[in-house]
Write a structure and sequence with these properties.
alpha+beta, 7 strands, about 30% helix, globular
Length: about 140
Amino acid sequence: MKMFQISRYFPHSAPAVFAAIREPERLARWWGPQGFSNQFEVFEFRKGGLWVFDMIGPDGTRYANESVFAQIDADRQVVIDHTCAPLFRLTITLEPEGKGTRVHWLQVFEDAAFAQAMKHILEPANEQNLDRLGAELGTI
């Protein structure tokens, strides 16, 4: 297994950050690296719920994704199992800090060799995800 983890402080409450994850139209605006957009086919935001969508690259290439919401703890944590290749678990934890929230982003890949080979893409992509979340939160 191979882990990638980052954290970022946002000057917004945990419920406000959680809403940007829970609401599909908002999540679609910020999910993924810079320049990507999303088209959700299925979004069942509940424990065991399915999330099927295409991430669309800047060049129009569509990347099929399928995940399951393994755990949802309102305003605190969302655990997502990516069930198509590459297999990984993403845990997003919201921790109140001062007047805002620290978002902890932990991505664990089953295939350590794949993750290591893609590290140069995955680490900046995760940072860009949080950049885009911050931009989405700025619209509140």
